[in-house]
């Protein structure tokens, strides 16, 4: 009995232990050999235990399946690691070949890359990651540049604050403010009136009203600094309206000190109708020259948000004369709408009042909207615009170029 057990132990140790030491399962196999020896002892010594039949074949199958699962779990990790390493090597080769490959990829991105069904899908995925990485770098660069500009602006502000504190600059600014205020005060007595119609609040949104008020603030500032300012009237102005609240936001304590006239009356109740001219872009009548005896009315609104003909209809209901600026007569338009902001209108009217020169006045129109000034009639201007549109379309290019060179020779 003992000799049989010893022989069985030697066979198990000689055949199984080398395999167990390679795969780290030495302890489990010692238990296996011990159970085998005990099972043989139990079979031979039937007097100690009750008679039971042990199915060794089923037991061996169960033990082998457990060993296979453990070995597969231990082998799967190196396979996965090897596939990731191979994917990284492939990416490095593609990067050296000059393809669009991201510099840094996470394990999840590598797994997604390996799961792509085709080579073209892998290329598209890598291109997407590469562009995403470039966008991140670009955003970071912009943020750094913005931070540098902010720091430079802070340094310049600190320098300008030091110059502002000098007594000469303070005295100069106070003197100029007094001079501007004196001119505005004189204009309230002797100046030509200019009316802002504040009756378009219901036609605009809150944001558009805010933009309108901001343009009026810039208009008032340029008017106050001019040589011969207008006497500004805010007509149809209601207290605690949206206009009023926006003006208080912009002017704060200076709102009550402005040298302008603010009233809730209509301009027809203040001035005679025969002297009023409503400036609107929809008017069929074109303004030829600036009249110092007339009172011009400007609608306080943003043109982009208003339907065409609103200000013209209002002027007709009140029986007022209308006029439009001669933009088509002096400007060769290229792109953009023919609407102007309120501060641009103020600059144009002030220049016309001082000089009477339309070319100088229309220089305040944004240069992106027109090509150049023209000294030709409206019919020839329309022909030129038609020729330019035909050139853009490319229809009969040579014929049109010859005609254009014939009509407009180089000087």
Automatic annotation (TrEMBL):
GO terms for molecular function: tRNA (adenine(9)-N1)-methyltransferase activity; tRNA (guanosine(9)-N1)-methyltransferase activity; tRNA binding. Residues 140-160 are annotated as: Disordered. One of its GO terms (cellular component) is mitochondrion. Keywords: Coiled coil, Methyltransferase, Mitochondrion, S-adenosyl-L-methionine, Transferase, Transit peptide, tRNA processing. It comes from the Eukaryota. GO terms for biological process: methylation; mitochondrial tRNA 5'-end processing; positive regulation of mitochondrial translation. PROSITE patterns: SAM_MT_TRM10. It is found in: Mitochondrion. Residues 180-372 form the SAM-dependent MTase TRM10-type domain. It is an enzyme of class 2 (transferase). It catalyses: adenosine(9) in tRNA + S-adenosyl-L-methionine = N(1)-methyladenosine(9) in tRNA + S-adenosyl-L-homocysteine + H(+); an adenosine in mRNA + S-adenosyl-L-methionine = an N(1)-methyladenosine in mRNA + S-adenosyl-L-homocysteine + H(+); guanosine(9) in tRNA + S-adenosyl-L-methionine = N(1)-methylguanosine(9) in tRNA + S-adenosyl-L-homocysteine + H(+). Gene3D superfamilies: 3.40.1280.30. Its EC number is 2.1.1.218, 2.1.1.221. This is tRNA methyltransferase 10 homolog C. It comes from Quiscalus mexicanus (Great-tailed grackle).
